[in-house]
Amino acid sequence: MSHDGQVGRVRQLSRYPVKSMLGEDLDQAYVDEAGIAGDRVFAVLDCLTGKVASAKNPRLWRDMLTVRSTLTPPGSTGAPAVRLTMADGTTETVTVTGHRDPALSKLLGRDVRLLDRAAPGACIERMDPTQVRTEDDLRSAETGSSGLAAGAPPGTFFDFAPLHLITTATLAGLAAHSGRPVHGQRFRPNIVVEVPDPNAGFVENLWPGRRLRIGPDVVAEVVIPTPRCVVPALRHGEDEPDIALLQVLSRHNRLQAVGSLPCAGVYARPLEFGVISAGDPVEFC
């Protein structure tokens, strides 16, 4: 690969076993058509509305971003299971049963259950980020419904495509514009790509339509820039809410390719499968 094809290296590799919950950082991961193994393999279903729970509607689900999910072996019945660690350090193992889950319902304040496959036509509620300028707006801004996994295999819980990448340059640019550190976990990427020039800005805006080789085996096609919702502005674990970050994105990276929406990062679709490790080179191919 020539120097012109070099993009950077895998600085951080992450998966989020439960949609809209905190996840886990990895040293190594297997990637196939459904993205990183174990990523978004579960979601929470609102038993009242029949919709998949998502922090994109923070009126109902913002507390999900205070819970860390990690994969665990199946439960005693053989049902798929996930281990949840709450903000106070207590843990709970939740399984897929087809019925309301008492522990999860108590945690989230609504009747919910765990899913391991999205039904056809599954959707989430999404708050309009352009209406959110203050913390109070998170209680009053309008929401609408949107479908899942338009660029991913059927039955998955991805917002769009199976891989989400963001660069260290984008994070540094957002920090420079906002005047405070911006942590990658706010954007929930699978891969943070460390690029050579920390001042390159939103460099991945130029990637859609190109293919990336990540490590020795994996090739992914970059599909579109990632439009941002309200989630980056919410509390993530110990990271405090940052409502102003929405205005920073709106001022500095609106892209016509996705309807003039504020963006950060890109969605990608795996074409060739294999193992990715932290530190692997990322190159155009």
What is the radius of gyration computed over CA atoms, rounded to a whole number of angstroms? 18 Å
Number of strands: 19
Count of helical regions: 4
Element-level helix/strand string: EEEEEHEEEHEEEEHEEEHEEEE
Strand sequence of the main sheet, in spatial order?
1-13-12-17-15-14-19
User: What about the largest sheet?
Assistant: 7 strands, mixed, barrel
Helix/strand structural class: mainly beta
Low-confidence stretches: none
Proportion in β-strands: 25-35%
Looking at the structure, what is the overall shape?
A: globular
Give the end-to-end Cα distance, rounded to a whole number of Å.
8 Å
Helical amount? 10-25%
Mean pLDDT, all residues: 95
Describe this structure in words.
This protein is mainly beta and about 280 residues long. Helix content is about 10%, strand content about 35%. It has helices spanning about 60, 100-110, 170-180, 245-250, and strands at about 5-15, 25, 30, 35, 45, 70, 80-85, 90-95, 110-115, 125, 145, 165, 190-195, 210-215, 220-225, 255, 260-270, 275, 280-285. A seven-stranded mixed β-barrel has the order 1-13-12-17-15-14-19. The chain has a three-stranded antiparallel beta sheet with strand order 4-3-18, with no helix packed on it. β3 and β4 (about 35) form a beta hairpin. The mean pLDDT is about 95.
